[in-house]
Fold these 3 entries.
Entry 1:
Amino acid sequence: VCVCVCVCVCVCVCVQQRVNAYLIYSSSVAAGAQSGIEECKYQFGWDRWNCPERALQLSTHSSLRSANRETAFVHAISSAGVMYTLTRNCSLGDFDNCGCDDSRNGQRGGHGWLWGGCSDNVGFGEVIAKQFVDALETGQDARAAMNLHNNEAGRKAVKGTMQKMCKCHGVSGSCTTQTCWLQLPEFREVGNYLKEKYHRALKVDLLRGAGNSAANRGAVAESFSSVSRKELVHLEDSPDYCLENRTLGLPGTEGRECLKKGKNLSKWEKRSCRRLCGECGLAVEERKAETVSSCNCKFHWCCAVKCEQCRKTVTKFFCVKKGENPPRPGENNSWN
Ligand SMILES: *[C@@H]1O[C@H](CO)[C@@H](O)[C@H](O)[C@H]1NC(C)=O
Ligand SMILES: *[C@@H]1O[C@H](CO)[C@@H](O)[C@H](O)[C@H]1NC(C)=O
Ligand SMILES: *[C@@H]1O[C@H](CO)[C@@H](O)[C@H](O)[C@H]1NC(C)=O
Ligand SMILES: *[C@@H]1O[C@H](CO)[C@@H](O)[C@H](O)[C@H]1NC(C)=O
């Protein structure tokens, strides 16, 4: 009877701890996944595939789940977002059981500098993010192996973009010695880094014939482990994303805005009309709209601000079906 009671108590304590861990981190995990999605939308703003909502479901159950380059990016950026937010929240003191990583403080880091200060605790973020994000992958097949690999690439991206910050010491700022620590970059940096990795993602060729037998699982694991954990991997080629496909949740590029003129456009942005419209068999339509905004504001003593209303014509470009009549002047073609 005694033994039985003991076992019961042990089980209860375990379950309780798991539930608590879940509650402590779940809001950070959710916020992190959300920031991954927002970064995805930013990074792909002028691409044909622009991170549509359907693509963001990380569920492993849909038979229509794709395993292409874009899937790889979604997994990596989400996983990175979760790790990033957990790490930052840890540094902000949101969790009782975690703080700065000062494990190397006092040690020599390199020529003329020592570890010191408060390094962001990416080790903590990595462990917790892995527990939460990788747990979504329940399968044992090649797709699951691909997703797990890309989840890890996302976490490596956060680690790989950490910045070394230093502080000088010495008589009147002579900087004879420095103490340095590692700090998270802006999340944008992680996004830029992963977008590069996306362009150079590697195709692993084994989907066909790789069943679920133990031997095949070994072969699958081996193929993935031969690729560096920093690189994104995919199994399938991507469609061209020009046409709408409702089954796959793809909107197509008709109706999308593109950029043509403008100060300071990147090469990628300047080519967006060709990429989104021209190469998809669509025409580019120019639409003008007038915007009204406050301007020339003056401060009057005392205390009022008076502004003028300035009208400005803005020109935007959109992809439309060829042969469609352009709107006549005066016709309502407003947009947000
Ligand atoms: C962690 O940070 C995010 C925003 O960056 C916030 O929404 C979330 O609530 C934080 N989590 C905790 C436990 O404080
Ligand atoms: C949508 O994609 C599916 C899967 O690739 C394909 O079978 C189907 O024909 C496509 N539908 C359209 C309208 O292109
Ligand atoms: C133009 O872009 C560069 C780099 O993206 C940036 O540093 C600069 O501030 C931008 N200039 C303007 C006027 O927006
Ligand atoms: C223009 O269209 C929008 C929505 O399509 C509508 O809400 C608005 O009232 C229209 N304006 C005019 C002047 O027709």
Entry 2:
Amino acid sequence: MKKALIIVDVQNDFCEGGALAVPGANEIIPYINLLMQDNEYDQIVLTQDWHPANHKSFASNNGKKVGDNIILNGIPQFMWPDHCVQGTFGAEFHPDLNRDKVTHIIQKGTNTDFDSYSGFQDNNHFMKTGLDDFLKYHDIQLLEIVGLALDYCVKFTCLDAAQLGYVTCLHFNGTRGVNVKPDSAKNAIYEMLQNTVTILG
Ligand SMILES: [Zn+2]
């Protein structure tokens, strides 16, 4: 069975000192580097949150406060601080992440009007990113998933992966939750378990 490692959004803005820092984010980077060193993955894919500066997921672009909720294209949208703006330092991958064996990069959130938590598609399920096509083209059947943040982009990437028919495993030590809402990371784990995602300790 061919397998791929999917590394979700390990970018400066989600790490220590970043605009949308996930607590403990930097701790997962050595773990991910070891996974790449100790395993033979057929493909290693990075996802990269890659927003235009006027992106609608930013509170600043809607006259809202960070943490507010709006309805965007008919679905709830949490208001984030400006983050991962195309071409900025915050959008770059963390320099400690070893990228020697990376075979592909998927950028998401590039359309001003749509947020994209999943690495596979935007939150409205309007546009696909090309990740599924890439993996199917390379005959990948098993996905191991790590990255940031557990309760948003990692969760939705895992749920879509399982839905699309991949054997889907989340490395618990390779992810951290942002927990902007109480128990959000814990609930994300329950939701993934209910949807055939395997959690590897
Ligand atoms: Zn984003």
Entry 3:
Amino acid sequence: MDKNKQLHEAISAADRIVILTGAGVSVPSGIPDYRSKDGLYAGKHNPEYLLSETCLQTEPDVFYEFVTQNLYYPNAKPNLIHTKMAELGEKKAVTIITQNIDGLHEAAGSKSVINFHGSLYHCYCEKCGQDANPEDYLRSDTHQNCGGRLRPDVVLYGEGISEAAIQGSIEALRAAELVLIVGTSFKVSPFCNLIDFKRAEAPVFAVNKEPIFLSQPFTMIQDDARFVFADI
Ligand SMILES: [Zn+2]
């Protein structure tokens, strides 16, 4: 049977679905996949440093300039993949666990989203802890109320994943009857280790332009997720 047809049947048969997503889902919205473009930042600093807690603390101006000029795409819109996943969430108990920090799953209307690496569109003040609008952060990283420093609630190099994100992800995978891996090479740990928490009997499908590798059986659909999700 055709793999796309197998995917459709698996989706029809499952009530609780976990979708694990990565940068490939946001590329059609005009957001580049930084990992595949390391050369872009060749120069004085590497992107791992520029996105590190060390950089934020020791060179906050360098961090601010890099993050606001390279990571924010406030005009980006959800694409067909985001909207199809949100529509699926209207009919089934879908939990999306994403590595993306662009907020586009939520913008598409998905209700159950775990931003595993945080979100650029949730900002807060390091000093007083108050939430801040991303628009305010994009104007200045100084908190008007207290003079403290604003930052996005994203997981930087050197920082740990939030306990709530880890626990929520594990619970969702333990309950899932079907797991989809979409638009990710699935190599970044601990995100890629989440798959170990799924039920043995829950089938896994991966949709990605490049093949991915798992230590357990799964169905690989090597294609553009836009084509695969078009008729879901
Ligand atoms: Zn403050």
